[in-house]
Design brief:
The chain has about 525 residues and is mostly beta strands. Helices cover about 10% and strands about 35% of the residues. It has seven helices and 29 strands.
Length: about 525
């Protein structure tokens, strides 16, 4: 396709509503600006009082009172968590690699199967160690969570060999706890992936992965990064190729599809030639405009680009039948705005010469320009070779009859033997005169070809062999005819001039017969007769 298509992604927005099991951070410094009253002192004859949420008893565990000014002086923040009855937490320590700014950790988890397989809502969180309740400023690393479901039984004890489906993801959070809500089906395996962006300067903090669910579950670390990335790729491909993805192009069994996740700022493009009908496969060109983005052209691993500012990048994808490629764009630095826009071209129609798709630029090989030749497309770069291989050859110069090498592409068509001993074929317009000169019949008088050319009109007279004498059969230029007749026409018996119509003679003659075709001009006849009579005397 020669048309350029575009797409744009402005990055994640805020999630609607609140998580059912969420945490909230309250800045106590802000509370000082609000006028809040402390509870009234307890009357001597009363052992209970009204609290903000109803009746509060003094003997309730954890209930105590303090001056609000002291509270704001001693505490920097307060962590408030919501509680769901019957839910329990499953914990596992996280150990980020503090030697690298970016990292990735993964854990398998599975809810025990008890009875039915009704999906239940869970909350997965990454909790960083903190003493911030007593500190005004703390710097946390940024974390992002993704949840994947394994869709088929594994062939080994490692679940990394299973197919995967993307369930949910969160945006990067630079706070103590990062939360992700999702649904899990009991008895089905899942993988939780933690994307880690280390704080600067580096701080070594103890971290915990927590799953808040109706039952306790086993959390096992996955340390094979290739297996983790492979499962993520399978999940992203399934999302793009499934109903949640969008089809940008589909032709001849080849597809270009996309999928994006607004919560995490993830953009996925899948180039699929696994079911290609043509041997050409797919050739695509994508012009990216990225801001604060991390692009992996062939996820996982190949063609990684980190666009810290605004960066324009041209990506080229060439796939043979049976191949598939996935491009992944993610948020780079959560402290900065993120955006990704792109325009694309994709081609699947094969070149009639080289077989590669026609219509898309590929630096170093194809400019994107092409020509249409007899309902086929040919790269501009392949055109000369194609013509040299397929075009008919000129009957005169043996060069291809096409618009190349100084020839305009116009030609004359000749049948076999039309001008002489030559086969049927084509002759360049530029070679036409030379070809005619080579094969046209020569004039019986001047021996030049019977053609329209300098000094000759192309008109001619035809004569049979021996018509006037010992000459061959053929044609004579109109311009040569009088001289030819003077040479070969019978002579007058009297004046010895040719028996032709000319300025002096009318062309009428008196025939005296004989094998030699003896005759006399009408104008010479009287003198001829007197000469005969005089000779007899």
């Amino acid at each position: 396709s020669r048309r350029t298509r575009t797409g744009r992604w402005k990055g994640p927005g805020q999630k609607p509503g609140l998580l059912p099991f969420s945490g909230a951070m309250v800045n106590c410094g802000i509370l000082q600006k609000h006028r809040l009253q402390t509870p009234p002192p307890k009357p001597p004859d009363q052992d209970q009082q009204e609290g903000p949420q109803g009746l509060v008893l003094e003997e309730d565990a954890g209930t105590f009172w303090m001056r609000f000014a002291d509270f704001c002086e001693e505490f920097a923040t307060v962590q408030v968590s919501e509680y769901c009855a019957g839910y329990v937490s499953s914990l596992c320590p996280l150990k980020p690699d503090t030697s690298q700014a970016r990292g990735l950790m993964a854990y398998t988890l599975e809810l025990p199967l008890h009875g039915n397989q009704t999906p239940v809502e869970v909350v997965i969180s990454v909790l960083q160690e903190s003493d911030e309740a007593f500190r005004r400023r703390s710097k946390f690393s940024a974390a992002r969570l993704e949840l994947f479901e394994f869709t088929s039984p594994g062939a080994s004890t490692s679940r990394s060999t299973r197919g995967a489906r993307h369930v949910a993801s969160s945006s990067f959070a630079m706070q103590r706890e990062t939360l992700l809500r999702g649904k899990m089906t009991p008895g089905v395996g899942y993988m939780a992936v933690v994307h880690w962006l280390q704080a600067t300067p580096l701080h070594s903090r103890n971290c915990t992965l927590r799953v808040y669910a109706p039952q306790r579950l086993q959390l096992d670390p996955l340390r094979d990064l290739r297996a983790i990335s492979g499962s993520m790729r399978e999940a992203y491909e399934a999302a793009a190729m499934g109903p949640r993805g969008a089809c940008l192009k589909e032709q001849g069994g080849v597809q270009l599809r996309c999928w994006s996740d607004r919560d995490s700022g993830t953009v996925v493009l899948v180039f699929d030639a696994t079911a290609a009908v043509s041997a050409a496969g797919l050739l695509a060109s994508i012009h990216w405009r990225l801001q604060n983005a991390h692009l992996q052209a062939n996820f996982p691993g190949e063609g990684t680009i980190e666009a810290k500012g605004v960066v324009e990048h041209r990506q080229h994808v060439e796939l043979k039948p049976g191949q598939r490629q996935l491009t992944l764009v993610t948020w780079l630095d959560p402290k900065m705005a993120f955006s990704a826009s792109y325009s694309w071209q994709a081609a699947t129609d094969p070149c009639a010469e080289c077989g590669a798709p026609v219509g898309t630029e590929l630096p170093g090989r194809f400019s994107g320009a092409y020509r249409k030749v007899e309902r086929q497309a040919v790269h501009e770069e392949c055109y000369l070779k194609y013509v040299m291989r397929t075009a008919s050859k000129c009957l005169n110069c043996s060069e291809p009859v096409a618009h190349i090498n100084g020839y305009g592409g116009q030609f004359f068509e000749f049948t076999a033997g039309q001008l002489g001993d030559h086969p049927a074929g084509r002759v360049h317009l530029e070679c036409h005169e030379a070809f005619q000169s080579r094969f046209a019949a020569p004039c019986l008088h001047c021996r030049k070809p019977i053609l329209k050319m300098d000094g000759f009109s192309g008109r001619h007279f035809k004569y049979q062999e021996g018509h006037f004498g010992s000459h061959g059969g053929g044609s004579v230029h109109e311009e040569c005819n009088e001289a030819f007749l003077r040479q070969w026409a019978p002579k007058c018996l009297h004046c010895k001039e040719p028996l032709l119509k000319s300025g002096r003679f009318s062309g009428r003659i008196f025939d005296y017969g004989g094998a030699s075709k003896q005759a006399v001009h009408e104008e010479c006849h009287a003198d001829f007769q007197r000469g005969i009579k005089g000779s007899r005397r």
